[in-house]
């Protein structure tokens, strides 16, 4: 890390996690736990995806969600670091050091599992986002609105997903994705 401390804002949805992270990181000299102008925001899964998509700050997600589709969604949304809540304090420090050095950090076991499931996939990050939203039951218009793209672009991504999955309609595509562990049920 540089001579200037890494500025971190902690805004996790779980109050006890928020308090624990604040206590743990508050005494670290290489960090400044602040509210304004952070370098890194440490937050929960849902808030982290939203913040990462905005692209204003580096986002670290600390969560109980460790399924492949959660990690894949975080990765495709631009999340800079992803740790399960049960990780060791030392690993949290490693992740923050990596972010301070301009790198990303995803826990190795999560990446290894993800690599196994992605080996046969060739989805673009945007296709993965569209598939996740299809699995949530979103119509094309809502997908377009949430991703800030045109409905025609959504349809193009869906056609590509059908071809890659070997599906002929959206229900079949979602069922196949769930069966293969690509998206959450």
From TrEMBL:
Residues 116-181 form the HTH luxR-type domain. Keywords: DNA-binding. It holds the Pfam family GerE. GO terms for molecular function: DNA binding. InterPro entries: CheY-like_superfamily, EvgA-like, Sig_transdc_resp-reg_C-effctor, Tscrpt_reg_LuxR_C. The keyword DNA-binding applies. The keyword DNA-binding applies. GO terms for biological process: regulation of DNA-templated transcription. SMART domains: HTH_LUXR. Gene3D superfamilies: 3.40.50.2300. It comes from the Bacteria. This is DNA-binding response regulator. It comes from Duganella rivi. The lineage of its organism: Bacteria, Pseudomonadati, Pseudomonadota, Betaproteobacteria, Burkholderiales.
């Amino acid at each position: 890390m540089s001579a200037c401390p890494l500025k971190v804002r902690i805004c996790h949805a779980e109050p006890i996690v928020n308090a624990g992270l604040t206590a743990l990181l508050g005494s670290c000299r290489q960090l400044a736990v602040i509210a304004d102008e952070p370098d890194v925001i440490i937050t929960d899964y849902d808030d982290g995806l939203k913040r990462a998509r905005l692209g204003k700050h580096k986002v670290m997600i600390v969560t109980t969600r460790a399924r492949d589709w959660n990690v894949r969604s975080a990765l495709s949304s631009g999340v800079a670091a992803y740790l399960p809540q049960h990780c060791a304090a030392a690993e949290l420090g490693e992740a923050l050091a990596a972010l301070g050095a301009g790198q990303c950090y995803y826990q190795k076991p999560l990446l290894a599992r993800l690599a196994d499931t992605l080996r046969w996939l060739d989805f673009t990050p945007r296709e993965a986002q569209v598939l996740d939203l299809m699995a949530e039951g979103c119509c094309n218009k809502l997908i377009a609105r949430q991703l800030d793209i045109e409905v025609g672009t959504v349809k193009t991504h869906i056609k590509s997903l059908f071809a890659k999955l070997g599906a002929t309609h959206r229900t079949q595509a979602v069922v196949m994705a769930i069966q293969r562990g690509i998206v959450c049920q």
